[in-house]
Structure prediction request, 167 residues.
Amino acid sequence: MIDAQYYIEKLGLEEHIEGGFFREIYRSADNVNSDSLSADFDGERALATTIYFLLKSGQTSKFHRLKFDEIWFYHYGSPIRIHMIDSEGKYTSHVLGLDVDKNQKPQVLVPASTIFGAEVLEPDSFGLVSCMVTPGFDFRDFELLAADDLCLKFTNLTQLIQRIHKR
Prediction:
């Protein structure tokens, strides 16, 4: 049986600060600056980047925010629920997976500046995805958010926030 450790080793994944495991697999050689985009950022960014990302059951991708759009692509394992809070505080979630009869989606967009986190849905499993950020990912555009601050701002989501940040 293929397990999470198999993919972690074979794909050379490392622990990610937000939770789970990752490895960058593509970074465009072409760059862009904020003069050509509506987003405001310092310096240049690659046109796009992609990573492999793996979450095990019991792990979460803690709530964080990126300045740019991120698209998640499902590959293998358990479906993954992506929790999102938009700039106006509206909560939505999408399940990344292949069972479209159960409203799962093989691809999910997380819009720029959305607060989001994720969790594996099946016990004793894992989910393997790829994520693409455009313009490309840079840690200057990444904000890992504190659970206490989120709970104060989104009191209606306290239980969810605490669960995602506790794991």
User: Anything to note?
Assistant: The CA atoms of residues 66 and 142 lie 5 Å apart. The first strand starts at residue 14 and ends at 15. Residues 158-166 form the longest helix (9 residues). The mean pLDDT is 94.
